[in-house]
Amino acid sequence: MNNVRKILEDAYQLAESGDNTKSELSESQQKWVETIVEKAESQKAVLAVLITSVTKKIETPTQDVRYHKTELPNGYSGRSFDTSYVTPFIAKKFQRFAMKSGSGWLTRSLEQAHPYTLTYPGRILDKAVREAFLQILNDIEENQADPKKYLHTIFAALINLMEKATVHDLC
What is the pTM of this model? Predict the structure, then answer.
């Protein structure tokens, strides 16, 4: 199994086991994750881009993942990384939240050649999701927050959301 798939699978297994890393995040960090996950179905592209960015940071700790395009200074190809690893993983584990188009970067509001800093000009229409998305990436890059804790917490919250939906569907 390649390193990226292992990162994703390990985070998923940890989340599925019920090991609660959520408590290792601050209250504001938890709120940002909750905001993203609560809107995961309507904001699939943001979810895919966030999971891609966090996974890339784990794989390459020196990469500033806010620079998601090769034409940005010291950037990487977020779209290629997403298409190769993240969207297929989401489609397999969290099908309901997977992008149908194959990549979150195909969404006009996220494909712009601007870094995902707090002043990102892209029009992510849900303001709370926009704020949470940019704050998480800022937290990882500027405050050296642990991307593994974020990835595990996102997966745990998605698993919880899917379980609630399954119980609801059965009623």
Answer: 0.92
